[in-house]
Design brief:
This protein is mainly alpha-helical. It contains 19 helices and three strands. It is elongated.
Length: 415
């Protein structure tokens, strides 16, 4: 296997051109190969002398891709390391963007060939580039490569830093949409990451306002709803009030899907049973299993019961609302506790559940208002406690001052 070894003072860019062109024309015979190799090296030299780094980058990546299947991963990585370093020589920000586009497009050209190495090359290019938007372009290409090359596991860890990346890139709303949707698509491939996938899909949908062309987001809005309903471990989402999702309510084709979301977020099991009876075909169309939907709705209905201001749920209410047998009531309470939907104590003697905490199914304006009221009450209570402490302190200080004064007067009398 041929390996690039620096043996002279030849420019590394020229060395790569010579190496790749020799391999590319190796099968053509010396008579045909030699003139082409000389021509390519001459073009590279002229570009180097003239400082035409963008032209040199285009020449080098084209040659590199022609021989990518003929060389080892080590040689391909070495070749692209030198090519990627060209971005440091770019004459302007526009040249950086064009150079990044040229290199990343060629790297992506054969995503299934040495996919993990190609992703590594893009990461290397990302680290060499200083231009914020150029970095965004490289990252987007890496996301697509990760999916098509089936190497998503190498890029998933970077999703935790997306917020800081966005601050650095300063991209507009359109680019943010593209990013969030691409990430959601990467995560979609892994069934264990459905919660994270829904999170970024929600971020994508949240970028749309009533002033935007909402039709663009229609299919993804449906996808988000179905992912939420299907997910057995996700019981809360903020989809309902998003304009991109709300548009489905009046859509002839997707209105039932929106109605289903509304049931799962705001209603109880009986509403779902009515929906299922009237829309069984809709559930089948989206691959929703009735038994799984009933299980999730029972848990959500129990949460709804827990939201009652009294904080107490009679066993009979649970039995009737969840449509279960009396002996199954405590089983469903335990399931809700296990799913961390509620914290409670079961009073078996009085056949009642005492709730100390419950999860919200959605967190919209109603929930924010409730939180505001609770915080205001808490603030007032704390203020009352502080006032009481200060009053007691003043009273105590007054008592001590009176005692001291009395002692002084008594001392004067003795003298």
């Amino acid at each position: 296997m041929t390996t690039i070894v620096p043996t002279s003072e030849e420019d590394p860019f020229l060395a790569v051109v010579r190496f790749t062109s020799q391999l590319a024309w190796a099968d053509a015979g010396p008579e045909a190969a030699e003139p082409e190799i000389i021509r390519l090296c001459r073009e590279a030299e002229e570009s180097i002398v003239a400082g035409k780094w963008l032209e040199l980058a285009s020449l080098m990546v084209t040659s590199a891709e022609l021989v990518s299947s003929k060389i080892s991963e080590k040689d391909l990585e070495c070749t692209y390391t030198i090519i990627c370093s060209l971005v440091k020589n770019a004459n302007s920000a526009e040249d950086v963007l064009e150079m990044v586009k040229a290199i990343s497009s060629k790297v992506f050209q054969q995503p299934s060939d040495k996919a993990s190495l190609r992703l590594k090359i893009l990461f290397n290019l990302y680290n060499l580039v200083d231009h914020p938007y150029a970095r965004f372009q490289v990252y987007m290409k890496a996301l697509t490569l990760a999916v098509e090359g089936k190497v998503a596991e190498y890029i998933v860890p970077s999703f935790e830093k997306i917020d800081s990346f966005l601050k650095e890139w300063s991209v507009d709303t359109k680019d943010q949409r593209q990013l969030f949707l691409a990430i959601a698509n990467v995560l979609r491939e892994n069934k264990s990451l459905v919660k994270e996938s829904l999170k970024f899909l929600t971020k994508y949908l949240a970028t749309f306002s009533n002033e935007d062309a909402l039709d663009e987001a229609k299919e993804e809005a449906v996808r988000a709803i179905i992912e939420f309903v299907k997910a057995s471990s996700i019981f809360q989402c903020d989809l309902l009030d998003l304009p991109a999702v709300a548009q489905l309510e009046k859509d002839a084709k997707y209105a039932p899907v929106y109605q289903l979301l509304k049931i799962f977020l705001t209603q109880r099991l009986n509403a779902y049973m009515e929906f299922q009876a009237a829309n069984a075909e809709c559930l089948q169309t989206y691959g929703l299993v009735d038994e799984e939907c009933v299980t999730k709705m029972r848990l959500l209905s129990l949460v709804d019961l827990a939201s009652d201001e009294s904080g107490k749920i009679p066993y009979t209410s649970i039995k009737d609302t969840l449509q279960v047998k009396e002996e199954e009531v405590e089983l469903w309470i335990v399931k809700a506790i296990t799913a961390k939907l509620i914290d409670c104590k079961m009073d078996q003697m009085n056949q009642v559940v005492i709730v100390s905490r419950y999860s919200e199914r959605e967190f919209g304006s109603k929930q924010w208002q409730s939180l505001r009221t609770k915080l205001a009450t808490w603030r007032d209570n704390i203020g009352n406690v502080i006032s009481t402490i200060e009053s007691n302190k003043v009273t105590e200080e007054g008592s001590q001052a009176s005692s001291a004064s009395a002692a002084t007067i008594q001392g004067l009398g003795v003298r």
